[in-house]
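hi! just following up on the protien thing from before. the input was this:
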Amino acid sequence: MSGIAGCKDVEIIETTPPIALAHFDSPERAMKFIKSQKKNATIHANKLWASENRSKPERLRCKMVSKLKKFLIELDGFVAKDVHASYKVFRVVVKSDGRMLPVAYFNDTGSVQWLDKTVVSEGVREALESFIAELE
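and the predicted 3d structure came back as:
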C-alpha cells in the first residue's frame, strides 16, 4: 500500500484468507482507492480485492438494490443504462421518457418502500419480495 495517496497504515488480520484493513486519512481517499482498483496492477498481480467496510444490514440493503436493478432489466425490459442504483442512499431510479423516476427505497429495517408502483410491474415486485424473504 506504499505509494497509495492518503493511506496511513495497514493492519493484517490473521484469518483464512487473511484480511488487511487499510486506514485512510479521509473517506474520499478510501473510496477513490476502491474505485481505482480495477486499474491497479499490484492488486491484480496479488489477486487482491478492496471494498469499503459496511455493516451487515448495509450489505443486505446493497444486495436488494442490486437485485431490483437486475429484475428491472431482465423482467421489465429496461435498458441497463436507464436503471440507476444508489448504494449510498439505497434507492433505485429509472429513466423513462426523458424523466428520472424514483422507483424504490430500501429502509434500514431491510424492507422496500415503493416510490412509484406504476413504473414497476407486479412481476418485479413479487420477485423482489420473494428474494427479500429468502434473505431472512
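The chain has a mean pLDDT of 89.
Residues 56-74 form the longest helix (19 residues).
cheers
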